[in-house]
Design a protein that fits this description.
Layout: H1 2-11, H2 14-21, H3 29-36, H4 44-56, H5 60-69, H6 79-87, H7 95-102, H8 116-126, H9 131-136
Helix pairs in contact: 2-3, 3-4
């Protein structure tokens, strides 16, 4: 089934390709647009790798816009994201902890498998970096 879906993605017009994949990278359809120009893809992994490469080679302004497009803690997000946040203990933050998370430059981290203390430590470690460093070294 995945192969049939990938074949369909490879064959549809670029505009439809972008429409179907536009939200994979946080409401940034330009990622799908640029990746779609490299079709056909031989696997889902090669499609994903191309999309990651598009982000990694994007301008600093585009990366910053992508970072800022991520959902904010406590805002509308997918059920998958909500489940990850709950597992990490982020659905039960104190007011002080919640404020600490919200007062910082957008912080993106895969929280699967770690808890809120580890997330806070990662945030503290990253706060030592300049905004320019974060944007320049942004990767997925």
């Amino acid at each position: 089934m995945i192969h049939a879906t990938l074949n369909a993605l490879n064959e549809i017009p670029l505009s439809e390709f972008v429409e179907k994949l536009k939200d994979i990278f946080e409401h940034s359809p330009w990622v799908a647009q640029r990746a779609g120009e490299f079709r056909p893809f031989s696997s889902c992994e090669s499609l994903y790798e191309r999309m990651v490469n598009v982000v990694q080679t994007a301008s600093e302004e585009e990366k910053l816009n992508l970072i800022q497009a991520h959902p904010h803690l406590g805002k509308t997000m997918s059920s998958f994201s909500q489940s990850e946040l709950k597992t990490a203990g982020l659905s039960q933050l104190s007011e002080a902890e919640y404020k600490l998370f919200l007062d910082n430059f957008p912080f993106i981290l895969t929280v699967r498998g770690i808890n809120k203390d580890e997330i806070l430590q990662a945030m503290e470690d990253r706060l030592k970096n300049s905004k320019e460093h974060v944007i320049h070294h942004f990767s997925l």
